[in-house]
């Protein structure tokens, strides 16, 4: 929050939100996220089977239920642990991520593409 100039600090109306991310940045993030989703759907081997980012809720439940039922049939116990890193994509080193995708999926090597400029 940023205080409006000439306003008293103790009044709620003296403060306004501060937007730190540009609109263009948000648009580019959306484009990159969309392309990553398309790539991961076309190349599921790029995402480890036990990493559920980019997967639908139904895919996650299907995987988990399969493991639970298989263990029950064999008389075993199952423990489930989840880790959700809030804002993981917002905090990742994008250049390294894009380079890794380009290295693993040669079709992403688009030299004239502003999102993949390498």
Automatic annotation (TrEMBL):
Protein's UniProt name: Reverse transcriptase domain-containing protein
Residue span(s) of domain Reverse transcriptase: 1-118
InterPro entries: RT_dom
């Amino acid at each position: 929050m940023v205080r409006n100039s000439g306003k008293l600090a103790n009044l709620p109306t003296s403060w306004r939100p501060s937007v730190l991310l540009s609109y263009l940045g948000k648009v580019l993030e959306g484009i990159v996220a969309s392309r990553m989703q398309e790539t991961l759907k076309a190349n599921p081997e790029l995402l480890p089977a036990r990493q559920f980012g980019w997967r639908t809720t139904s895919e996650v439940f299907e995987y988990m239920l399969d493991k639970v039922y298989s263990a029950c049939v064999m008389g075993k116990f199952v423990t489930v642990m989840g880790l959700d890193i809030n804002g993981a994509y917002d905090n990742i080193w994008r250049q390294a991520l894009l380079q890794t995708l380009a290295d693993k999926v040669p079709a992403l090597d688009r030299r004239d593409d502003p999102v993949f400029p390498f």
